[in-house]
Design goal:
By secondary structure, the chain is mainly α. Among the domains are: 374-470, Ankyrin repeat-containing domain (Serine Threonine Protein Phosphatase 5, Tetratricopeptide repeat); 475-579, Serine Threonine Protein Phosphatase 5, Tetratricopeptide repeat (Alpha Horseshoe), CATH 1.25.40; 596-767, no CATH class. Strands 1-2 form a two-stranded antiparallel sheet. Strands 3-4 form a two-stranded antiparallel ribbon.
């Protein structure tokens, strides 16, 4: 019977398996670690038609599974060199794939086998790869131990990233100790290229706790240089202090690190410990004590002039301040900045800050020392709006009458952060008033009024005025309080109070501006309307000859304000010192390429006294006509101006584009009308871009009838106001209409009323 079984098995073995059947059986045997099954299958014939590449892919997959299972016997059965060599050349991608699988399983025998088959432990082509780095990166210690025994292996393969920096960065003590027990120790002080950090420096930069501290200890025990310059600028000791790692600082100090290394920037070690002490205050204090006991100067300023106690105050380190005070530091160096800094640090939760303040005051901090700007601790306490602290400083002799270099007093500082809280502001100011503080200032440019919140209540303002707040001539500009009002703090009740105490609504400041001119300049609608309603003089001119109307003309799109002034009698005929009227201000600043948004203002102005000024050039040399000539949206206004017989003698010709009016379908008719209205022939020709158009225009001019020539001459003599002047000549109606160009321009263009509301499609086509 056994003989029959062997015969059957032999027959099965001699039978060729299909690729799918072979694949299924082999994968199952490999996953089950069935060495005999794998051996039999590898001896089994596979169908001759099975693709070679699919067989190689199958064997590669099975070899990977065997390496993962750490089964060297199966690896030996499945692996063939053809899996990694293509035409005799090693395939680096497959090399890395097999090696990474063996390393991931921490399978030293597998790595040894692959290496014996010709696979590399390192390559630098394409994406560089190294087995040593891979082991350290993924903490595969068994393979790492094996690799370190391979004869001739390079312990420092990557000059840009020393091998020891990897476990140091990770806090991987196990790998680090293995490397330190090998020849890799010789490279213990090598630095990486990216940031010039040694293994010791990497422990500090990536420090997370005890695991990195243990690595530091291992490195120092192995001989790492604890005073070597890292980051091209500092030492491990200074770097640890900067990173707020007092545990590391204390360890390095105990290891004998240089306590007075070269200065890091502007700070020495003691300064850095005082500046960065948030993580472990008690350990930081122990470090500071260690330094002071070793002779460090507790008063030595940094390169920026900051003393250790000042830095400790800024960082809010109570424990370090205690140690510095115990060492006898001078809390008034430099210039009492420590006390001022403690006041600046005050916040909503002021427990720590108040403790520090008390410590400094108990240690003799001078409440009257000021900084380079003249700012005292009392001023800062007023700025913090802390009543308790203000009263404490005053009780200790703080100078309540002092001003900073800008002339600001404690009163100014108490209002700096009022944010509308007039009740608290009054409480603070009453403290200073009781001490005899005046609301006046030594510098007229920093008056108290400018520090009052935009929405003061009247009672608060009365309190200020009753205690000396100047409202009639404020500061070097000699304004009154009305000049300073804005739309946020204007109320009629406030105005009634100010007028009741005699504030002059027409007072001119240093530059001649009245409150109305200031309101126009800042577009304060409510204030401007109120001043006009109570009868202010709206035609007062400042030292440049400007009225409120002229100042308003410098703005944009403020029809409501213009209506208020003009309807109340603002004089459009007044001229400034340069001879400019309001209308010239307006045309210089308001006629633009967005004319469709401005025509309402312009129509209103021309109907209210500005029509006589349309031919006067503004400061840029432009008249209203030359401004609207270049805007297609202004065609209706252009034709209206021609009906008013405005001057056409200065058409723009230098560096100008062709006027849109000469680019329409009716351009021939348009330039004929321009010529008949008095425009110079040569200037019109500058706007004709076709040679044929020039010829036609010359023919028109040369053949102009005597009647039309006379009209052109007479219109040139009559000038603006031609409609009234022609009417007074008592000419026949037909002749009057001819003089007014009614035979050339539709009657709808002769009036401003509804000028831009044309529904007549033919008219629209004509002027467009």
């Amino acid at each position: 019977m056994y003989t029959a079984y062997k015969k059957v098995r032999k027959e099965e073995k001699n039978m060729a398996l299909s690729l799918d059947d072979f694949s299924s059986r082999l994968k199952s045997a490999v996953k089950a670690n069935d060495e005999n099954g794998v051996k039999e299958l590898m001896d089994q014939q596979v169908a001759t038609y099975a693709p070679v590449d699919k067989l190689k892919a199958l064997k590669t997959e099975c070899c990977v599974d065997a390496l993962t299972n750490r089964n060297l016997s199966i690896v030996n059965l499945v692996f063939t060199k053809e899996l990694v060599f293509d035409a005799g050349a090693l395939n680096l991608y497959k090399n890395v794939k097999f090696m990474n699988v063996a390393i991931a399983s921490d399978y030293a025998d597998g790595v040894h086998f692959l290496h014996s088959q010709g696979l590399l432990l390192e390559h630098l082509e394409g994406m560089p790869w190294n087995a040593l780095y891979r082991c350290v990166e993924f903490n595969k210690v068994e393979v790492l131990k094996y690799l370190l025994t391979v004869p001739g292996i390079d312990m420092n393969p990557n000059k840009d990233e020393p091998l020891l920096t990897l476990p140091a960065r990770q806090g991987n003590l196990r790998c680090l100790n293995i490397l330190l027990d090998s020849n890799a120790k010789h490279y213990i002080n090598n630095k990486n290229k990216m940031d010039a950090l040694s293994a010791l420096g990497c422990c500090i930069r990536y420090y997370k706790g005890s695991e990195h501290l243990d690595c530091l200890k291992a490195l120092t025990n192995a001989g790492a240089d604890i005073d070597a310059v890292i980051l091209n600028r500092t030492t491990p000791l200074l770097y640890a202090a900067e990173e707020d790692l007092p545990d590391v600082v204390l360890f390095l100090l105990n290891q004998g690190a240089n306590r007075t290394p070269r200065v890091y920037g502007d700070h020495k070690l003691l300064h850095l410990l005082c500046k960065y002490s948030e993580k472990s205050p008690d350990v930081s204090r122990e470090c500071v004590k260690n330094l002071i006991d070793s002779g460090a100067d507790a008063n030595e300023p940094s390169g920026c002039g900051e003393t250790p106690v000042l830095l400790a105050v800024i960082s809010g380190s109570v424990e370090i301040i205690k140690e510095l005070l115990k060492a006898g530091c001078d809390v008034n160096k430099p210039n009492g900045e420590s006390l001022r800094a403690s006041v600046r640090q005050l916040s909503d939760d002021m427990t720590v800050e108040k403790v520090i303040l008390k410590m400094l005051l108990d240690a003799g901090a001078d409440v009257n020392l000021f900084d380079e700007d003249g700012v005292t601790p009392l001023m800062l306490a007023a700025q913090q709006r802390d009543v308790e602290l203000i009263e404490l400083f005053i009780s200790l002799g703080a100078a309540v009458h002092a001003c900073d270099v800008s002339g600001r007093s404690v009163c100014h500082y108490s209002l700096a952060r009022a944010y509308g809280d007039t009740i608290k502001s009054k409480e603070l100011l009453e403290i200073f008033v009781k001490e005899g503080v005046s609301f006046a200032t030594s510098n007229p440019d920093v008056t108290l009024w400018h520090w009052i919140d935009p929405t003061p209540d009247i009672e608060f303002l009365k309190f200020l005025v009753n205690n000396g707040l100047e409202v009639h001539k404020i500061g070097s500009r000699e304004e009154n309080i009305l000049h300073c009002l804005n739309h946020e703090n204007f109320t009629e009740a406030l105005m009634e109070y100010l007028l009741g105490i005699g504030v002059d609504i027409n007072q001119q400041d240093k530059y001649g501006d009245t409150p109305l001119i200031s309101a126009a300049s800042d577009m304060k609608l409510d204030l401007l309307k109120y001043l006009v309603n109570i009868g202010c003089d709206m035609n007062i001119q400042n030292h440049e000859g400007q009225t409120a109307l002229m100042v308003l003309g410098q703005g944009h799109n403020y029809l409501e304000l213009l209506e208020i002034l003009l309807k109340a009698g603002a004089d459009t005929n007044l001229r400034d010192v340069k001879g400019q009227t309001f209308f010239q201000y307006y045309t210089a600043n308001n006629i633009s390429y967005q004319f469709e948004n401005q025509h309402k203002e312009l129509e209103f102005l021309l109907q209210n006294g500005c029509l006589p000024f349309i031919d006067i050039p503004n400061q840029d040399g432009d008249t209203l006509f030359t401004k609207v000539l270049s805007d297609i949206d202004a065609f209706p206004m252009l034709w209206f101006l021609i009906t008013e017989n405005c001057s056409l003698k200065n058409l723009p010709t230098t560096n100008c584009s062709i006027a849109p009016i000469f680019m329409t379908t009716d351009r021939v008719q348009n330039y004929e009308i321009f010529y008949e209205s008095g425009a110079p022939r040569d200037q019109i020709k500058q706007h004709l871009f076709e040679e044929k158009s020039v010829e036609n225009f010359d023919h028109f001019c040369n053949n102009l009838s005597l009647k039309s020539t006379c009209r052109r001459t007479i219109r040139g003599q009559l000038g603006l106001g031609i409609k009234e002047k022609v009417t007074k000549l008592n000419l026949p109606i037909a002749l009057q209409d001819f003089m007014l160009l009614k035979d050339r321009i539709p009657s709808k263009c002769f009036s401003l009323i509804g000028l831009f509301k044309r529904d007549d499609s033919k008219f629209k086509l004509w002027y467009e």
